[in-house]
Specification:
Layout lengths: L1 E3 L11 E6 L3 E11 L2 E11 L5 E2 L2 E2 L2 H15 L5 E6 L5 E8 L4 H12 L10 E11 L2 E13 H13 L3 E7 H13 L10 E7 L4 E7 L2 E8 L4 H11 L3 H10 L1 H5 L1 H30 L7 E5 L8 H9 L3 E3 L7 E2 L5 H7 L4 H7 L6
Parallel strand pairs: 2-7, 4-17, 7-11, 12-15, 15-16
Antiparallel strand pairs: 1-11, 2-3, 3-4, 5-6, 8-10, 9-10, 12-13, 13-14
Length: 364
Amino acid sequence: MAFHFGSLFGQKNPPLIGLDIGSSAIRLVELSAPLKNIFRLEHCASEALPHGAVVDGNIENIAQVTDAIHRVLIKSGSKARLVALGMPPAVVITKKIILPGGMSDDELEIQVENEAGQYIPFTLDEVSLDFDVLGIAPNAPDDIEILLAATRKEKVEDRIAVAEAVGLQPRVMDIESYAARAVTEHIGSGLDGGSEGKIIALFQIGANVTHVSMQLDGQVLYEREQPFGGSHLTQDIARAYGLSFEEAESKKRSNELSAELSTNYEREYRAPFIESAAAEIARAIQFFFTSTPYTRVDQIYLAGGCAVIPGLRERVALHTRCACAVMNPFEGMQVASSVREKQLAAEAPAYLVACGLAMRRFDQ
């Protein structure tokens, strides 16, 4: 599901960057496809955001976010100007509805708008609305199933504004969880025996929220957000060592504290954070079992900047007794010579959403 702002000028797969505006950083990815179903990473870069510039998915400081996007564009080296942006799931209302088949496009649009009013707690002139025809409705061959997506206009307009301020041209506004799902499906196809029939659990550990998604054969079985994220560890570091939030975040990402104060930091701060994260993930899986008819998870993927914290993957596997891997959205891709592969390996899980957004370039 994506809010489309226009055609891609009639070109076939013109350059398009995926731009993820997160709570702690801006991340950019540009992909190409030199061969069918084979992607190549052409450009990627990230730029930290000042604390409070983006809060709960809302852009609170337009100038700071614009400056960060400008810097990440320069850092990446990308010359693309078409961009796919993402919206946090928490600010987007989605709903599946059933409508009669056989309507023209204009009739369908009118009917969707009429139906949308029942599910959206705002007037239609306050929202950006899009829909996607999923196909024939289950158990009703004369009807079609529609997926609605709606969000407040100002949420979309803020993202358009910061992109346009640096010369970018928004073409797609996707839902971040859908972008992540596109990558998960792509990576899942590489599992032993493929991903068919396997329940895949994706945990995106953000700054303040962990997004949980359980998927089976490309369909979401269960989704929720848990109020747990990497900023908990950053705040502990800042308090303990008298650092600003930005300094603490930088040291956490680079593991500098492990080298400087390894025993104290690992014992008093990193190890308890890892234990808490693993326990949160195990509880989320148990809640999935008690809330749905399903009783198993075949594969866990960890994503987000915290996914690479040493020891987290192993602790999660121990708590959950499930196969657990750190998500690398660029797995199996070719990598352009301009990309620093060593740095990419350490940061790859944080690029999940940006990579999924960049994949929109190849939508049919």
